[in-house]
Amino acid sequence: MTPIELIQHNISGYIRLEAEEMAFFTSLLETRQIKKRQLLLHEGEICKYSAFITDGCLRGYIFDKNGFERVLSFAPVNWWIADMYSLISQKPGVLNIEALEDTGVLLLSKTDQEKLYTQIPKFERFFRIITENSLVANQQRLLDNLSLSAEERYNNFCKKYPSLINQLPLKQIASYIGVTPQFFSKMRNEMLRKKS
């Protein structure tokens, strides 16, 4: 699939658009290539775009008070990512969004998103659904971090991001589930031993 076909397929899973509506939407998108380790968004910047991933993978992370990276989310192919707080409020954000490998994205600016709401109101439904899904996922992640063991959090990661299990460096997964790489490696080895 081409990047445009991929995003059209993503959108058609939520709303039905006429050909001219889809053409108007795709005319608003900006194609960008992000090199491995390059940041799409820096902490402290105002988030001006929602990014749809067409190839590769992005991660959203923050630095805690001790300077450690804390991965909040991954965005593989066919996912959207943004600093939602910053995008909605247009205030400086806290999220860094970085390419874990060379990554292709389609960007939709906040301004053009507002244009879509006016000209094609169906897009309000689309973005409401993906925002609600993001809110539910973030709340579930918060609850999991408060109540589940590291092993259970890893199992949830595997369910949420099955395509990334063997693609990501182990330290990225460890950061996402909230453990040190050493602890994660030991835990994963024990899990594999139990299965065999």
UniProtKB/TrEMBL annotation:
CDD domains (alphabetical): CAP_ED (cd00038)
SUPFAM superfamilies with a match to the protein in the record: cAMP-binding domain-like (SSF51206)
Keyword Transferase part of the UniProt annotation: yes
UniProt KW keywords: Kinase, Transferase
Domain Cyclic nucleotide-binding: 32-117
Pfam entry (one): cNMP_binding
Protein name per UniProt: cAMP-binding domain of CRP or a regulatory subunit of cAMP-dependent protein kinases
Keyword Transferase among record annotations: yes
Classification lineage: Bacteria, Pseudomonadati, Bacteroidota, Cytophagia, Cytophagales
Species of provenance: Pseudarcicella hirudinis
Any GO molecular function: kinase activity
Taxonomy, superkingdom: Bacteria
